[in-house]
Design goal:
The complex is a heterodimer of chains A (about 130) and B (about 425). Chain A is α+β, with helices and mostly antiparallel strands and about 130 residues long. Helices cover about 15% and strands about 35% of the residues of chain A. Chain A is built from two helices and ten strands; from the N terminus they run E-E-E-H-E-E-E-E-H-E-E-E. The longest helix of chain A has 10 residues. Chain A is elongated. The mean pLDDT of chain A is about 90. With about 425 residues, chain B is of the alpha/beta class. Chain B contains eight helices and 27 strands. In chain B, the strands form seven sheets. In chain B, strands 1, 2, 5, 6, 7, 8 and 19 form a seven-stranded mixed β-sheet that branches. Chain B starts with a strand and ends in a 16-residue tail after the last strand. The chains are: A alpha+beta (about 130), B alpha/beta (about 425). Chains A and B meet through strand 2, strand 5, strand 6 and helix 2 of A and strand 4, helix 2, helix 4 and helix 6 of B.
Chain lengths: ~130, ~425
């Protein structure tokens, strides 16, 4: 079987290492150019099953703000990103919200939870309504 | 009318103001106040709902609101006063601050030391003089970010983005996730002005094309924008005739740079850096006005909030020492020069070095993208320090902690950035040491 070289730009941190992964079929045989373990793990996954963190907002009732930012607690397969966002578009929560609250557990059976990225007080309590 | 006296007052309650206030408390300032014009602390972090913040500071990946949340908790626990909904109108030499807010009315504060942490604002259409009509639907990317992430409005469904700054790239992804079509990003320079990771995860992931060396030559539409005409530019940034083409759209987002919001500094005559548009500061982040310190994006625009917090800690600590009267007189003043290959350096001057301090952190930006390079410190004794860099981009700040013993006695301090004739192979890891 012939091996091929796939260039991968790491997105793990702002250093942004550009490296290469050498593949034999679907098997990683060599990696060069990455400068940390996290980067190598990212590159190894990126060539076979790319994943991304997902952030969006959900609607809030009775809150000082009308929208709550939410974040996945782990990366989501790339092809499921839009499905996750569509799922979250239909979610509504009621204030108060504390940081880290699970808003959707095991989204779409992917094993990933979506959590509140910040706290939101009730409308009369602290922040004025937006 | 409310009157008060404080040791340290930070003007602005974003990441810089909060970190400076915390550091001031830790350095022994008893009475510390943050004055914030928004309805809550956190500044622009609150609208940056994407992840990628805090990798250095907290060793984990947070969203903007998540990063702000950490600091808001620390500020709350540290016994720091916070005035929200309060806009500072003036902060005069001597430390008299006048501010106004809907609940407090007019208030004055006497501060022994002041930290300028007002952040930055976006350059607008006027700043880059885009020709054409002036319809609705043209926004700065950050304004659109606030609309989408906090106010719940989608500014358009068919989007063209001008400029490849990070906020524009982030908004390309965000608008796509919200169901809009993002047709393309146009960048006038031959290289991108955003972080490489954002090109990958915000454009390439969604198949959004990035056109380098392209600019907008016309905006069309009467009431609402209906399209733009773009064209290729040559090396001198002049439009190449015959390369124009039209794109329909109902929304144009601009991500064409940020400028420090330094009106309060300029009003009291703080010396400013022509390149950064922020104050000229020494290693303590003290401006040319004694007792006035500056940190974060009001000083120079950063790529990473972690580095903003880091810099603000220096300013906050220095302000606390100044308020206590134990801040040394600046006697041994030296200019720091951004030489060949470099566009800017912060701090721009050094004053008397602090005893027991082993290294000083410098921030640089390059003039142009370069491959493997060497950044070096030149004094009258020649090159006294250098470091190899794998790759250099104007959009990615260079950070270096330089041992004080290399330049303690030097009178000429100049940094240069040159191509590396003998680059290390790909494996070579280059990371700055943490201070």
């Amino acid at each position: 079987m012939t091996s091929r070289v796939q260039p991968i730009q790491c997105i793990g941190c702002p250093v942004g290492c550009g490296g290469e992964v050498v593949l034999d079929g679907d098997r990683v045989v060599e990696m060069r150019g990455f400068t940390c373990e996290k980067g190598e793990a990212y590159a190894a996954e990126e060539v076979v099953a790319p994943k991304r963190m997902v952030t969006t907002t959900v609607r809030v009732h009775g809150g000082a703000l009308h929208f709550l930012p939410v974040v996945s607690d782990g990366p989501v397969p790339k092809e499921a990103i839009f499905d996750c966002v569509r799922l979250l578009r239909g979610i509504e929560v009621t204030a108060p919200i504390e940081t880290g609250r699970v808003i959707v557990a095991d989204a779409l059976g992917l094993g990933v939870d979506f959590k509140a990225a910040r706290a939101i007080a009730v409308a009369s309590d602290g922040l004025r309504p937006a | 009318m409310r009157d008060a006296t404080y040791d340290v007052v930070t003007i602005g309650g974003g990441p810089a103001g909060m970190a400076a206030a915390l550091a001031a408390r830790q350095a022994g300032a008893d009475r510390v106040l943050i004055i914030e014009r928004d309805r809550e602390l956190g500044g622009i972090l609150q609208q940056c709902i994407h992840n990628g913040f805090g990798l250095r500071k907290f060793k984990e990946e947070l969203t903007g609101p998540g990063y702000a949340d950490r600091y808001i908790e620390m500020v709350g626990a540290a016994g720091i006063d916070v005035w929200l909904d309060s806009t500072v109108l003036a902060a005069e030499a001597g430390g008299r601050i006048t501010c106004v807010g809907p609940t407090t009315g007019l208030a004055t504060v006497e501060a022994k030391a002041v930290v300028h942490s007002m952040g930055c604002r976006e350059r607008t259409r006027g700043a880059i003089r885009i020709p054409g009509s002036r319809p609705a639907g043209v926004f700065t990317a950050g304004a659109a970010q606030r609309m989408v992430n906090m106010e719940g409005y989608l500014p358009g469904r068919d989007v063209v983005i001008i400029g490849s700054g990070d906020i524009g790239l982030i908004m390309a992804r965000r608008m796509t996730l919200e169901g809009a079509r993002v047709r393309a990003v146009f960048e006038i320079m031959p290289y991108s002005n955003g972080l490489t990771r954002n090109i990958v995860q915000c454009l390439e992931d969604f198949g959004i094309p990035l056109y380098l060396s392209h600019c907008v030559v016309a905006v069309h539409g009467h009431d609402r924008v209906t399209g733009v005409t773009v064209a290729e530019v040559d090396a001198d940034l002049h439009v190449k005739p015959g390369t124009e083409f039209d794109l329909p759209c109902d929304c144009v987002l601009l991500s064409v740079g940020l400028i420090p919001e330094n009106e309060l500094g300029r009003a009291i005559g703080v010396s400013t850096d022509r390149i950064t548009s922020g104050a000229v500061v020494d290693q303590f982040r003290q401006t040319s006005k004694p007792g006035f310190f500056a940190a974060g994006n009001v000083l120079h625009v950063h790529d990473l909030v972690d580095l903003v917090s880091n810099e603000a800690e220096i300013a906050g600590r220095s302000a606390a020492l100044f308020a206590k009267g134990v801040f040394g007189e600046a006697t041994h003043e030296r200019a720091v020069i951004a030489g060949e290959g470099l566009r800017q350096v912060v701090p721009q001057r050094l004053s008397t070095l602090e005893k027991g301090k082993n290294a000083i952190r410098f921030f640089f930006r390059s003039k142009a993208p370069m491959g493997p390079s060497i950044i070096a410190l030149k004094t009258e004794d020649g090159i006294v320090w250098d470091r190899k860099l794998r790759v250099v981009k104007p959009s990615e700040m260079i950070v270096a902690d330089i041992p004080v013993n290399r330049f303690a006695k030097a009178s000429h301090i100049e940094f240069v950035l040159t191509l590396d004739e003998h680059p290390e192979p790909l494996e070579g890891a280059v990371e700055e040491e943490d201070a």
